[in-house]
Specification:
- The protein is mostly helical.
- It is 70% helix and 0% strand.
- The longest helix is centred in the first third of the chain and has 19 residues.
- The chain is extended and about 80 Å long.
């Protein structure tokens, strides 16, 4: 019986934490802090921890984002030419 109560409480607690998303709220708070305010200094370790978590959880995406400024921009897809069929027959 104790096991069932523990599982039920854990399930409800996990659901509530998932809905509340405390980590996302803390990171958003840290991102809103401006330089020169008293809250900027406590926000720096939070942002550093968030960056470390991103590199650990999603390493390929994080490295790709870090290197993206070094890559050449993508070429736009060719536009549809409405007269392509007419030119195709003439050649």
């Amino acid at each position: 019986m104790t096991l069932m109560i523990t599982l039920a409480v854990g399930t409800v607690a996990g659901y509530l934490i998932r809905c509340w998303r405390p980590a996302r709220r803390v990171v958003r708070w840290a991102q809103r802090q401006e330089v020169g305010t008293a809250a900027w200094w406590p926000a720096q370790p939070v942002l550093a921890a968030a960056v470390i978590v991103m590199y650990v959880v999603h390493p390929r995406r994080s490295v790709s984002n870090a290197r993206s400024w070094q890559q050449e921009p993508r070429v736009d897809a060719p536009e549809l030419d409405p007269e392509w069929a007419g030119r195709r027959r003439s050649s």
